[in-house]
Design goal:
170 residues, mainly alpha
């Protein structure tokens, strides 16, 4: 019984570390995007004014997903980043085409997370990936993520398209 309680405590601590890192990545991604790509809307107190129209299903969302996945790759592993991204999509309520966009961008982030050693270098490479349209910035993009995903995932036929060339084992 004591061992089970210790294990539950460790799991809760790791879960909190994951959530804290995810939130830190969100803020860092917004800060970088605001300073280096284009200004983001802010409230009077200087905090970002996050809205669906300005921060989701677009270039900001694509960059944030890729950056977060890249940082998780740098700090944990590509496998951990991949599973965390899948879990995040599985527990969410996004339509399948939005999940496809998010998973694609997570994969791009992992790719550059493996190639970089700092968050700054990662962000700079992801800025280039955004500029070259490697990242998906529109949920209706026809490219289809072909890596590991949760079991209920299936794109509608209209979205079947080019696949992301990647190694799906992490």
């Amino acid at each position: 019984m004591k061992t089970t309680l210790k294990l539950k405590h460790i799991i809760e601590l790791k879960k909190q570390e994951y959530l804290d890192l995810m939130e830190k990545c969100r803020e860092e991604a917004y800060e970088y995007f605001d300073k280096n790509i284009r200004p983001l809307p802010k409230q009077e107190n200087g905090e970002f004014h996050v809205s669906k129209e300005k921060f989701y299903d677009n270039d900001v969302d694509a960059f944030r997903h890729a950056y977060t996945s890249g940082v998780f790759t740098q700090e944990e592993s590509a496998l951990f980043a991949n599973l965390a991204g899948i879990y995040n999509e599985y527990k969410g309520t996004n339509p399948i085409n939005v999940q496809n966009m998010d998973l694609w961008n997570n994969a791009v982030g992992r790719k550059y997370g493996k190639k970089t050693t700092s968050k700054k270098e990662l962000a700079e490479m992801l800025k280039k990936a955004l500029q070259t349209k490697e990242l998906i910035t529109d949920p209706n993009d026809p490219r289809e993520y072909k890596g590991l995903r949760h079991i209920n995932y299936k794109l509608p036929p209209k979205n079947v398209g080019k696949q992301f060339p990647m190694n799906t084992n992490g």
